[in-house]
Specification:
With about 180 residues, this protein is an alpha+beta fold. About 45% of the residues lie in helices and about 25% in strands. It has 3 helices and 7 strands. Helix 1 packs antiparallel against helix 2 and helix 2 runs antiparallel to helix 3.
């Protein structure tokens, strides 16, 4: 086995991986299911880690492609060909990472908001909050009107139409106090 065979093998392996990943992603969409295998490839939803399955597979493909070109087309010696292979692999993986980050940034930048963003917001009581009980408030977050069950922080009753401030979020409920 020569280095050229290794380059071709890595190029083929990367291409087979890309084809299989595309087919399995397409097949999972047909059934409406979600096939997801993640080996710490994401820090959190929508943010790809620089060293993930996708970037490693892309590096392998780029390494194989660059090495193949250096070995067979340019007929470079081993060290120069491996340098080209490594450089090509890094550049292709970096480009893939950049494109995926851009895609994730735009597709994940919806109108969703975290519960922490509700803290300190002004809300309107739309269903009276009885003493020690639960009512309902509405507030605006990222351009959306949000309804949430609510309890008074001090346990006192708050009438419908009152303006309140959100003190705490517990699950889907908020704790509020009257706005001064």
């Amino acid at each position: 086995m020569t280095i050229g065979h290794l380059y071709l093998g890595l190029l083929g392996l990367g291409l087979v991986y890309a084809i299989l990943a595309g087919i399995t992603g397409w097949l999972s969409d047909l059934g409406g299911g979600d096939v997801h295998v993640d080996a710490t490839g994401h820090f959190d939803a929508g943010h790809l880690h620089p060293v993930s399955g996708t970037t490693v597979a892309t590096f392998i493909t780029g390494f194989g492609a660059g090495g193949t070109v250096g070995h067979y087309y340019l007929e470079w010696p081993l060290l120069l060909g491996m340098t080209l292979a490594a450089f090509t692999g890094l550049m292709v993986a970096a480009a893939a990472y950049g494109v995926l980050e851009l895609v994730f940034k735009h597709t994940q930048a919806g109108s969703e908001f975290s519960t922490e963003e509700a803290l300190g917001r002004e809300a309107e009581v739309i269903t009276s909050i009885p003493a020690g009980g639960t009512g309902e408030v509405a507030y605006t977050a990222r351009g959306q009107r949000v309804h949430s069950s609510a309890r008074a922080t001090d346990g006192h009753a708050i009438t419908k139409g009152s303006l309140v401030v959100i003190d705490k979020v517990v699950g889907a409920s908020v704790y509020v106090h009257r706005k001064q």
